[in-house]
Specification:
With 502 residues, the protein is α+β, with helices and mostly antiparallel strands. The protein has 19 helices and 21 strands.
C-alpha cells in the first residue's frame, strides 16, 4: 500500500550566505522538515558596487523546487504550497514590461556611506526624532530609504515602474503577480507601525514615490500560483499556490520560536543576530530611539521589538581571513580551543558599524581591543572567544534594554537559527543573561514559513501560541542553565559602558 502523504510545504529561505529550499510535512500532531536543496549566495562586485547575484538565486530556487517535488519515491509528490522569505531592505527595480533593470545592490555596499550627505539629506528632511516617531525603525545606514536617496538620479531608478523587495521579486518571477509583503516592507523605514500601512509623511519628505511599491500583502494571504514555465522547469504538475509568509526571515524565525509562555526573549542568530521581544504594540519613545531599537512588524499583528547585532558575521569573517592565511578553517576544534581560553579577557561592541564591511576582521577586532585598553587576542582561539563573549554580552544588553524600555519581563531566552548549534555561544548567553536558554530549532525561519502556509491551507489551526506548541512538541531542543559568577559579566559590561549603542 503506498504511503499516505501529509500536506507538504516548500519553504524558500534565502540567507545572506546561502539559500535553501526546505520541505515541511504538517498535521495536527506532526511537523517534520528536511532540506531539499541548498545553494550558495555569493555577492558579485562590478566596478565599485557590490551586487546580489539574483539570477543565480532564482535558479537555485527553481532547482530546489524541482528537488522538493520528489520525496525519494519513484513518483513525484505534489506540493501543497510554497512560501518565500529572505533578508530585508534590498530590492530590485523593474521597468514597465516587468523586466529587471539591474542586479539588486547589496546592503553591505558602501553607496549609502561613501559620501556623508546621504544621512545628512535624510536628517535635513526628517530629523531623527521625527523619523523614529513616524516609523519606529532603528537607524541603520543601509535601510531602504537611505538606499533610495543614494539612488537618486540613476538611470535605473528613473526608468523604474516597480520596486520589489527580494522575496517579493522571487515570488513575482514564480507567479507573475506583484505584491509587497508587510513584515519585510516594515524594514524599508516607510511603514507606520501603528497603522501597519505606508507612511505618506516619510515618503513625501524624502520625495519617494510610493506608487513604485505594489499593494501590501499580509502573511497568510495568497500570492499567486506557479506560472506554466515554472511548472515545466520544476517538474511540478499541479497549479501550486504561493502564499505570502513572514517574508522577512526574522519574522518567520520568530514564528518558529518554540515558546510555551509569552514571557520570552528571542535571539535569531545567523549572519546577523536579532535580539528582542515580541510585543502587541510599538515602542516609539525617544528613549527607545536613543537605545537604537527597532519596531519591525511580525505575523498576526505583532511587533518585533529588537536590536540588530553584527552576529556570527564576526566569526564568519574571521574564519574567512584565517583560511586565506593558512590558519584554522574548521569551526569545531576552534570552538573547543576557545572554550579553554580565559573568559571575558577582552570584549568588543558587537553592534559597532566598524565591523559591517567585509575583510580583515581579526585585525579590526584586535584594533578595537587595543583602542579600549584591553588585551589584544593572541591567535584564533582567543579571537573566537572574544567574539563569542562579546556576542553574549550584546545579547544581554539588548534583552535588558528591551525589557526596560517596553516594561516587560522575561524568564526564558530562546536562541533560534544557526547559533543554536553553537554550544559555547548558548552557554555563554545563559551565563551573561542569568536566564535559562532554550536552543533550537536551527531552521526556525523555514519552520515559521511552513507553519504560516500550513495554517492558511487549513492543515493546522490556531494562533501563534498553538503553532508554537506544535513546535515545542515536535522539535529537538536543548536547554542551558546559567552557571558561574554573574558579576564577571557585570564587570565586562562596564568596560563598554561608555561605548554607544549600535
Amino acid at each position: 500500500m503506498p504511503r499516505t502523504h501529509h500536506p507538504r510545504f516548500a519553504a524558500v529561505d534565502l540567507g545572506a550566505s546561502s539559500g535553501r529550499v526546505m520541505v515541511g510535512e504538517v498535521a495536527a500532531d506532526r511537523l517534520t522538515l528536511h532540506e531539499a536543496h541548498r545553494f550558495p549566495n555569493t555577492p558579485v562586485r562590478v566596478h565599485h558596487t557590490l551586487h546580489w547575484d539574483i539570477l543565480a538565486l532564482h535558479q537555485g530556487v527553481l532547482d530546489g523546487l524541482k528537488a522538493a517535488a520528489h520525496t525519494g519515491d519513484t513518483t513525484p509528490a505534489p506540493l501543497t504550497g510554497i512560501g518565500i522569505d529572505s533578508w530585508a531592505v534590498d530590492y530590485g527595480l523593474l521597468d514597465a514590461t516587468g523586466s529587471l533593470l539591474a542586479n539588486p545592490v547589496h546592503y553591505r555596499d558602501a553607496r549609502t556611506t561613501r559620501t556623508p550627505d546621504i544621512a545628512d539629506t535624510v536628517a535635513a528632511a526628517l530629523p531623527p526624532p521625527a523619523l523614529y516617531a513616524a516609523t519606529g525603525l532603528q537607524h541603520l545606514p543601509f535601510n531602504t530609504i537611505y538606499q533610495l536617496v543614494a539612488a537618486r538620479g540613476t538611470p535605473a531608478l528613473a526608468a523604474a515602474h516597480r520596486l520589489l523587495l527580494i522575496p517579493d521579486l522571487i515570488s513575482y518571477w514564480l507567479t507573475g503577480e506583484a505584491g509587497t509583503e508587510l513584515t519585510n516592507a516594515s524594514t524599508t523605514q516607510l511603514i507606520d507601525p501603528r497603522t501597519r500601512d505606508w507612511s505618506a509623511e516619510v515618503a513625501d519628505a524624502l520625495s519617494i514615490d510610493l506608487a513604485l511599491f505594489p499593494p501590501l500583502r499580509h502573511p497568510g494571504s495568497a500570492a499567486g500560483t506557479l506560472r506554466p514555465e515554472v511548472l515545466t522547469a520544476t517538474g511540478l504538475s499541479a497549479a501550486t499556490p504561493v502564499t505570502a509568509v513572514g517574508s522577512h526571515d526574522t519574522a518567520s524565525a520568530v514564528v518558529g520560536v518554540p515558546a510555551t509562555t509569552p514571557r520570552f526573549a528571542y535571539i535569531a542568530t545567523g549572519t546577523w543576530s536579532l535580539a528582542g521581544l515580541e510585543l502587541d504594540a510599538p515602542v516609539l519613545t525617544e528613549g527607545s530611539r536613543l537605545a537604537n531599537f527597532t519596531n519591525e512588524l511580525g505575523v498576526d499583528g505583532t511587533v518585533r521589538y529588537l536590536r540588530n547585532i553584527m552576529g556570527l558575521w564576526l566569526l564568519q569573517e574571521c574564519l574567512r581571513a584565517w583560511r586565506t592565511s593558512a590558519g584554522p578553517s574548521a569551526l569545531a576544534p576552534l570552538l573547543r580551543a576557545a572554550a579553554e581560553t580565559t573568559p571575558l579577557r577582552s570584549v568588543v561592541d558587537a553592534g559597532d558599524p566598524a565591523f559591517l564591511a567585509p575583510g580583515g576582521m581579526p585585525d579590526r577586532i584586535a584594533g578595537a581591543c587595543r583602542r579600549t585598553g584591553q588585551p589584544v587576542p593572541r591567535g584564533p582561539a582567543e579571537t573566537t572567544r572574544c567574539v563569542l563573549d562579546s556576542l553574549a554580552l550584546a545579547y544581554r544588553r539588548a534583552i535588558d534594554d528591551a525589557c526596560r524600555l517596553s516594561g516587560r519581563t522575561v524568564d526564558t531566552v530562546h536562541i533560534v537559527g544557526g547559533g543554536a548549534h553553537n554550544e559555547l555561544l548558548c552557554r555563554l548567553t545563559a551565563d551573561a543573561c542569568g536566564l535559562p536558554v532554550v536552543a533550537g530549532p536551527a531552521e526556525a525561519a523555514a519552520l515559521g514559513n511552513v507553519l504560516v502556509q500550513a495554517r492558511s491551507a487549513g492543515a493546522v489551526s490556531g494562533g501563534l501560541s498553538e503553532l508554537r506548541e506544535l513546535l515545542h512538541s515536535t522539535q529537538q531542543l536543548r536547554q542551558y542553565e546559567p552557571t558561574g559568577d554573574h558579576s564577571a559579566w557585570d564587570r565586562a559590561a562596564a568596560r563598554l559602558e561608555e561605548e554607544p549603542c549600535a
